[in-house]
Amino acid sequence: MNFVELKRLYDQPLFDLITQSRAAHLEHWRGEQVQRCSLLSIKTGGCSEDCAYCAQSSHYSTGVAREELLPVDEIMHAAQRARAQGATRFCMGAAWRGVRDGTAKFEQVLATIREVSQLGMEVCVTLGEIGPNEARRLKEAGVTAYNHNIDTSPEFYPEIVSTHTFAARLTTIAAVQESGMSVCCGGIVGMGESADDRLRMLEVLSNFQPPPESVPINCLMAMPGTPLAGQPPIDIFDLVRLIALTRLALPRARVRLAAGRTRLTREGQALCFFAGANSIFYGNKLLTAANPAADADVALLRALGLEIEPNEDSEGRGTAVSGDTWRV
Questions:
Q1: Secondary structure letter of residue 253 according to DSSP
Q2: Most buried among 5, 137, 160, 276, by the most CB within 10 A?
Q3: Whose CA is closest to 69, among 38, 96, 89?
Q4: Is residue 219 among the annotated active site residues?
Q5: How far apart are CA 147 and CA 150, in angstroms?
Q6: What CATH number has the domain bearing residue 177?
Q7: Is residue 322 one of the residues assigned to a domain?
């Protein structure tokens, strides 16, 4: 979709917009299922990038200590626990600018991926900038998806990051696509960007070829010590509009309600699910930010008549059902 098309949809009355997005959701997905993903920071802190939202940047004093890459057995224990608790996707994030083929840390990550991939879950990693060789080796090791968010619009991006460019993000994404790995790519809202910036971000995402299979929508967690520490939470109706528009622009993508759910009410999250979100991260922490407790998530899904997507059906796609209900 182009910007004009997106803005026409976005500017509709809210109920008209989410009615359309709900119909698109039910056409491509089982309306009652929500995928639970688990995210583990396998290397925390000390990142050389200056992303204004990130507590792991070495440019800011945030209290997040630099740690070494976790050993394989510790990561495997976390992955096994995640699977036992219902996760169908295990994501591993490392706080560094990128990795290069032939380095010891990259070989250690590959060894970890080979082990985790034997557990039957989708394997997603976010390791910063990579090129074609790294992408090929990650896929061979068992990575099913690579996360590399574009964060915001090309125009607003320089306000958030100065140590790399928006074009550099797209170069990594192109290498991922060339390798055959799926692309997990979304953004962060509530950083001071305009509504038009959000639409421009979505315009870029919707014109990827192929489209991203997963689009995480993160609400800024204003971390103490970062330049964005004083940003207020995004208005819930603005978030719901963006979720709905993402579902319309990318009907076959997972729309992941990602970071920032601790700042959303149960009712706000329910609106996001209705509008088209069908995946959440669970566990009490996302990298360095707080996340709702797993039992709170289970209680919310149960109250809404939603189900955790079973391990044996990680794709979760289905046909539309008759009527606008939560059941197939």
A1: S
A2: 276
A3: 96
A4: no
A5: 10
A6: 3.20.20.70
A7: no
Max CA separation in the chain (angstroms) = 55
For the chain (328 residues), the mean pLDDT of every run of 10, in chain order, is: 96 97 93 84 85 86 80 91 85 86 91 93 92 96 95 96 94 95 96 97 96 94 91 95 97 92 91 94 58 77 82 40 26
User: What string of DSSP letters covers 79-136?
Assistant: HHHHHHTT-SEEEEEE-SSB--TTSHHHHHHHHHHHHHGGGSSEEEEE-SB--HHHHH
* 36 is a catalytic site residue: no
In angstroms, the Cα distances linking 137 to 125, 146, 216, 275 are: 13, 12, 24, 37
Measured on CA atoms in the order 57, 58, 59, 65, is the torsion positive or negative? positive
Annotated active-site residue 51? The verdict is: yes
Could you tell me which residues are beta bridge partners of residue 38?
A: 90, 282
Is 124 an annotated catalytic residue? Answer: yes
**Would you list the DSSP string of 134-188?**
HHHHHHHHT--EEE---BS-TTTGGGT-SSS-HHHHHHHHHHHHHHTPEEE--EE
Interatomic CA distance for residues 100 and 112, integer angstroms: 16
Instruction: Please say if 37 is a catalytic residue.
Output: no
| Measured distance CA(131)–CA(254) in Å, rounded | 25
Which tokens is 269 given?
């999250």
In a domain, 54, yes or no: yes
- Whether the Cβ atoms of residue 103 and residue 50 lie closer than 8 Å to each other: no
C-alpha distances in Å from residue 175, one per residue of 105, 129, 224: 20, 10, 34
Q: Considering 37, 124, 185, 272, which one is annotated as catalytic?
A: 124
Query: Cα–Cα distance between 328 and 324 in angstroms, integer?
Result: 10
Annotation says 184 is catalytic:
yes
Domain housing 200:
10-306
Structure tokens at 288: 């360095």
Candidates 89, 241, 256, 263; catalytic one: 256
Known catalytic membership, residue 91: yes
Number of domains in the chain: 1
**Residue 129 belongs to a domain:** yes
Residue 320 lies in a domain: no
Q: What's the confidence (pLDDT) of residue 326?
A: 25
